[in-house]
Amino acid sequence: MKNHNLLTKTELKIEKIFLQNANLTGIAAQTAKILGLNPAEVLVVDYHNASLTLDILNTCVNAYNIIGKKRQLLDGLEKLSGVYVCDETSVSSNGMLGWIAMEREPAEQALRRSEQMASEILQNIATRAMVFSTGTEVALGQIEDTNTPAIAHRLSAAGYKVTRGDTLKDDRFFIAAKLRAVAEYGGYGLVVTTGGVGAEEKDHTVEAIKDLDPQAATPYICHFQIGTGRHVKDGIKIAVGCHNGTLLVALPGPNDEVMASLDVLVEGLKAGLDKNLLAQSIAVNLRDILKKKTTHILE
After folding, report:
1. 158 and 264 co-located in one domain
2. pLDDT digit string (tens) for 65-88?
């Protein structure tokens, strides 16, 4: 069962409850037991003028454990030595904890409706994708962007609703900021970038994704000797990471490599591969392509 975030509304107040030499630790423990929480997650923070205030230290709770629990909570507390309740005793909260005082059946119906709506929203987000190209040459119109239309066409055919993003300039922190904004506020389940994965000084896409997801999968496509030509890194990589529930995929810039990666990407998404397996699948395919290119050049 999915837990719900209480945000900052973690205080629970019980009004017109009377204590006489009561054990506050026992009150907290009994409250935790009835609400399906760990005893260490409930703390009595105040008692004044027959008003008891408790704080729930775990900000994520299972809503089904708390809705409609007012009567059960008061009955449980009244069993404790030195705790007295009356017909006017009430339970309240400014946030989701207020569900304790609701009637259970209509509250459960409302909760199920909200969960259905949340599920539909998440499904919609999962099929929304944004595609970014990178590079100064593309941004200045010196090179035609053939990658974005190709990716958009393939993802659309796979059922994604695709938005074409701006061309990202060759700046690690700019790329990271742009991807972070899309992942946190855009409502996209998938972001695909092309270019900026090489071994030159201007290539920053892989590093930008690592900034957002330090555990991103970044397999090599090929290796280089640092210092040869314009290579300041030891090889070309791709990246597959995740930030705020959004999958981030960095593909190479050459159009033939992008085209060859699309089927592998789409099939991996359909199969629900995790970021490591998806990255490896794409990388293995690209390594085969580069081997064929190299063989053809040598011939």
Report:
1. yes
2. 888 889 999 999 999 999 999 999
